Please model this.
Amino acid sequence: MRHVEVSVPPVEEQDSIDARVTPTGSLENLSQQEVDRLLDSSRGGLYGLFRRCSLAVLNSGGETDDARVIFERYHDFEIFIERKAWGIKLDLRNAPASAFVDGRMIRGIQEHLFAVLRDVLYIHGEVYEHGSVELNDSAGITNAVYRVLRNAGLLKPRVRPDLVVCWGGHSISREEYDYTKKVGYELGLRGLNVCTGCGPGAMKGPMKGATIGHSKQRIRDGRYVGLTEPGIVAAEPPNAIVNQLVILPDIEKRLEAFVRTGHGIVVFPGGAGTAEEILYLLGILLDPQNVEQPFPVVFTGPAGSADYFRQIDEFLVATLGPVARQCYRIVLDDPPEVAREMLRGMDAVREFRRRRSDAYNFNWLLGIPHELQKPFEPTHAAMASLEIRRGMEPHRLAAELRRAFSGIVAGNVKEQGIRLIEEHGPFEIHGDPDLLRPLDALLGAFARQRRMKLAGDYQPCYRVVT
Model:
């Protein structure tokens, strides 16, 4: 995208404003069918999806992780596509004034807004409606993820492995946030790029640090990749540093995009969402089909986070067994060593893929079990029927525990999940008592450490039934 022209009336101090935005580049021309698909709210709710995601990126920098607060505050926000002879314009009504400076839309938010348009159109037009991608088997789902990323321009050809995925919570302490910046800085100094869930907290800090490291090394094309999905984007809107935003159809495809495009993963402190990501990753790395795959994983934080990672480690061993420790290394209060570990791991990744003739930009050889790819819809019935029992293979138990945390994330911050909890009470989680006790202890620690919500008293959206 080369340039975006914005016209907007002069702005004083106000909460919302109207604006007209004109894209140039790949989105100059949309077919009449594509425009109709966006505007027709009766056809699968595509306009509603486009509106919600657009409002989320326009509200970047907001201080709430409750999606409903955003939607209620800007309940009169509308976004329309106007057909022009030379292309389209976006007509915004009652948009968040924070997206503008002196009457002009912030350039990064402009880019994110058109990334929403691009991805919503492509996902529903090419992936779902046209039936050109088969989503009933594992290979088809992987192909869908690949095509969404390729359409977004994320998959750079002929580049050495250099993309570090950083996971961690949006609700973290100042000490932990500052530490994520230090790690990002060390990654940037070593020419490594950063990919996160694109939101605030541990998703923003590594990018912020990497920009300084890249600047010192005169790296002018640093990549700050943000991967999100419609259900979470309002609670975790893209931070301003993200320069490549991609919206995947659901959480499972978002997670697959992380592990197939990333060449190593750094995990900072977080809450239920971070635990979900860890269990998803271990569900893959513990699978026998991936035993030879090199994949550097580091859990890290400041010295004050030692208890946090002790709890995570104890939970993983208590549920999945000591074999889980083979998949990660814990490094405390040592940002340079985290970056060096990523570099060492990426050398092994590069050599492995070179020998196996696999792509550097997308890990085709990584085996992802179908149960980790299928979308999980957190309902009370689905949460109560989770199989959390002894005797399961570790990678299968990890997949089931991942769903439990996914449901808790939905009940904490996703609009539909919050509504279900209000209507029917907390989700119930059943299973073997010796597995549920460490689960309940970890969740209780997250709540006490205020890792579940950004603000306010946390009311649990779950009940562990032992």
Remarks:
- DSSP finds 16 helices and 15 strands in the chain.
- The first strand starts at residue 4 and ends at 7.
- The chain has a mean pLDDT of 88.
- The CA atoms of residues 450 and 456 lie 9 Å apart.
